[in-house]
Amino acid sequence: MKNIVTKAYSLLKKSPAEPDHSKRSFMGGVVGAAGLTIAPGVMLYQTAAAKPADQPVTDEVRWGMLVNVDACTEDCTACVDACNDEHGLWPDPESMTDSQWIRKLKVTDTQTGNSKTFPVMCQHCEHPPCVDVCPTGASFKRADGIVLVNMHTCIGCRYCMMACPYKARSFVHEDLHDQLPDSPRGKGCVESCNMCVHKLDAGEGTTACAQACQKDGHQAITFGDLNDPQSEISQRLKSYGGAQIRADLGLNTGVRYQGL
Questions:
Q1: Where are the domains of the chain?
Q2: pLDDT tens profile 53-74
Q3: Residue 113 near residue 90 (C-beta atoms within 8 A)
Q4: Which of 83, 113, 162, 238 has the most CB within a 10 Å radius?
């Protein structure tokens, strides 16, 4: 099984699409969004259904995801399709660099021939390298473990893309159209899976990919609070375990894989 994890990382190391070399001016200072200061522990999105300002995000909860690799089928794209619909990541026929916040990988053990298929997205590390290298603080981690990008302060340097060992971030090269209010995006910015933070802040307690996987009947994705020993995800991790991709890096990822 070690060979499969090694093979997975080798696939993740493939270079992303060639970047757009158009220049982007650097705006000094922090650009606010509706008077909201973006900082770890503070909600990125402020919508009508979000928590009141007197109920900040805390580290009492750490959101995470467990993927049962054995229940994930190669021909199923329910999680990818749901993510695209939830965040407006619709393919552009004229674009060669469409953003993809979640993607399916197939890895094969070269010794046994055994193959595994599973989704890979931002792993929401406890110690995220993308945050460490960001020169403006645009990449940050909330108190509840969700790693986000503030498009208002992202300057498109793409240091975070180089630092991410999971190749989980995309760069927006093209003009954007028909954006969704819960998923603001920006040309010249980096973006990645945000664990459907707008759904969590609205109290739904799940993500679009997990909902779609459940609805599709595979039930390969379990989402929940890693800090709650009684939560379903904690109980499943206790019973079945969950591997980290590149656990040797010591990042303590919020996404784990059962059966990998």
A1: 2-12+59-258
A2: 457 889 999 999 999 999 999 9
A3: no
A4: 83
pLDDT tens-digit readout, 143-155:
999 999 999 999 9
Rounded Cα distance, 150 and 231, in Å = 30
Q: What is the CA radius of gyration of the chain?
A: 18
Cα–Cα distance, 246 to 201 (Å, whole number)? 30
Q: Where are the beta strands (DSSP E) in 30-181?
A: 63-68, 102-108, 115-121, 139-141, 147-149, 170-171
H helices of the chain, in order, are: 2-12, 78-87, 129-133, 159-163, 197-201, 208-216, 232-240
Q: Which CATH architecture has domain 2-12+59-258?
A: 2-Layer Sandwich (3.30)
The Cα 128–Cα 141 span in angstroms is: 8
- What's the CA dihedral at 141, 146, 149, 151 to 10 degrees? -120
Q: What is the DSSP letter of 146?
A: -
Distance between CA atoms of residues 258 and 224, nearest Å: 15
Report whether 76 contacts 67 (CB < 8 A).
Answer: no
Mean pLDDT, residues 99-106 taken together: 93
pTM: 0.79
Query: Residue 17 has what DSSP assignment?
Result: P
How far is 38 from 136, CA to CA, in rounded Å? Answer: 12
Looking up tokens 């945000």, which residue turns up? 194
Nearest to 196 by CA among 78, 32, 79: 79
